[in-house]
Write a structure and sequence with these properties.
Cyanate Lyase, Chain: A, domain 2; 6 helices; globular; alpha+beta; about 40% helix; 434 Repressor (Amino-terminal Domain); about 180 residues
Length: about 180
């Protein structure tokens, strides 16, 4: 590991605020100087550029890797770490340098909204849907399951196109394990 790099925390350990894995302007731009660690945002840029160059889709990459397409897309965008074998397969598929692969294996700082509400129209509509339907969904979860939450750790998501008479519809599934509060 480079001198500025810290080992990823073990299970149950928080990522410290001084962690160079954080995608934060507080760390300043990577000037490319010797010994300077690549940041996750730079690895993500390299991944997306390689994806464009090779004219691949997120779904196509997931299929090549044998991984779920929603999880893979989120991981490629910096929200999940890749295991060693998958990171190496991705390196081969996209012709990535070793420094990118090393960053892909690190536990990222999750969460991607730089501003709320998000400015991107698609993200804003998802945000808006949760603002409108979130309280109702919360109440129905409590009504059906009791006092607790839906896990975003033991979680699956899916998006599908559904053709309908009035035009294509977006079908999004959020599948999280119920975790009861325990007192």
């Amino acid at each position: 590991m480079g001198k500025d790099r810290v080992a990823p925390p073990g299970p149950g350990q928080p990522v410290p605020d001084t962690d160079p894995q954080r995608d934060s302007t507080a760390h300043g731009p990577n000037t490319g100087q010797e010994g300077e660690a690549m940041r996750r945002s730079e690895a993500t840029e390299a991944l997306l550029e390689a994806k464009r160059t090779k004219q691949l889709t997120f779904s196509g990459i997931a299929e090549e890797l044998g991984t779920d397409r929603v999880w893979t897309t989120a991981a490629l965008l910096g929200q999940h770490p890749f295991d060693q074998d998958t990171a190496q397969d991705l390196q081969t598929l996209l012709d990535l340098p070793d420094e990118v692969v090393a960053v892909l294996r690190e536990i990222p700082t999750r969460g991607s909204f730089e501003q709320l509400p998000p400015a991107d129209p698609t993200l804003y509509r998802l945000y808006e849907a949760l603002q409108v339907y979130g309280p109702a969904l919360k109440e129905l979860i409590h009504e059906d399951f009791g006092d607790g939450i839906m896990s975003a750790i033991t979680f699956r998501a899916n998006v599908q196109r559904v053709d309908a008479e009035e035009g294509p519809r977006v079908h999004i599934t959020l599948d999280g394990k119920f975790l009861p509060y325990q007192w």
